[in-house]
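## Example record

The block below lists the input lines for one assembly entry, exactly as stored, with component labels intact.
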Amino acid sequence: MATTAPGRNVSVIWFSLLLALILMIIPLPETLRFARPEWLGMFLIYWAMALPQRVSIGVAWFVGILMDALSGTTLGVHAFAYALVVFLVARFHLQLRQYPLWQQALTILSLVLIVQLILLLASSMTHQWKVWMPAVTSTVVWPLVYALLRKTRRAFQVS
Amino acid sequence: MFFAVVASLTLYIMDDRLDYFGQVRSVLSSVVYPVQVTATLPADFATWLSTFFQDREQLQERITVLEASQQLMSVRLQRLQALERENLRLRELLGSSFRLQERIQVAELLAVDSDPFSQQVILDKGQRFGVYVGQPVLDAHGVMGQVSEVSLFSSRVVLLTDPNHSIPVQINRNGLRGVVFGRGPSEQLKMDYMPHNADVRVGDLVVTSGLGGVFPTGYPVGVVREVRFPAGKPFAEIAISPAANLGTSREVMLVLPGERIEFDLPEPLVELPEFLGIEEIEAGGAQ
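Predicted structure tokens for the full assembly:
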């Protein structure tokens, strides 16, 4: 590859996060609305796992604020949820990298459950089982996200 | 992490409790507007495609149907205007004031999803078109909700079905007043705090009462679907299905505050509602 300066290309990270933001609000059919995978959360988790020195709690917090503005939740809710998740990932990123993919996916399940729990606590909606659907769909698509983002990271030699 | 927690909590409390914090929100919403526009592109493209491949016959058929309904409407409108004038005259005799027809502005929904926990939609008109927080939003069939947040180019509307939304209403048949609450996505609305002897029947039309000063008087909110008087509970349980097509409407109307009529004002009564910012109605769309 003709990438001249290995050790940069941070813009790729920002671009992918922007893409995740768009995926979070792209219209879905009514039946699938509750099953939308937590794209932004997964992207943040991947980058925090692969490059913890680039995607820190601050980045997660900032992106979370944008997500709050996009989804109309009270400011700080998504920010807190993502910051917490990235904190956990950064803490255990060395273990996480060693896990086989299915075990990673299970970790994603619990992390997205944390995000959903925080969102649910902040909303006034009565509890319904479908509230937890994003965690399941996220677990299912995690291998795909992981493979794609790893490919992107290697192709652009992001570091 | 500590900073993130403190910052999130501070923001959360400020956004929740302080009124003027809305400006910060509005700035943030303006910042993320490009993201929203990008997200609508696929849906817009699909609409464009379906319009593009519509054949002439279909379009002509549509025009015929629309013309017919337009005629029907204008006949009804004539009668309505006569009635309205008569109503005003009578009210004048009674010495009560009445609101003139509200002016209306057309807006379109942005094809963007919001937080699934709340029932909100985003409109393509913002501060620049004079949209303000609390402005009532209608569609062709009834009340949809009210504006909850305005940014430069867009605005956010809370729908009637949002669990946080309530609207003062009255029963059209007998003028009985009450409040209608939202209960969440694809659920019926409920009318709360009505005593067991309240005269509410299935099929009653529920309209806005205009109390509270946010919504104008007399727009349909919904139809009573179920009335139950559970023993041992202090209030009746009344389910109402919304009149507006909350899930499917694309064109919505923002009501501008109407002027209150002074008593000697015979002149502008027959004025048609003024359309500001009319959009070309797309020839395509769902059939």
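Chain B touches chain A through 43 residues (CB under 8 Å). Residues 259-287 of chain B have pLDDT under 50 and may be disordered.
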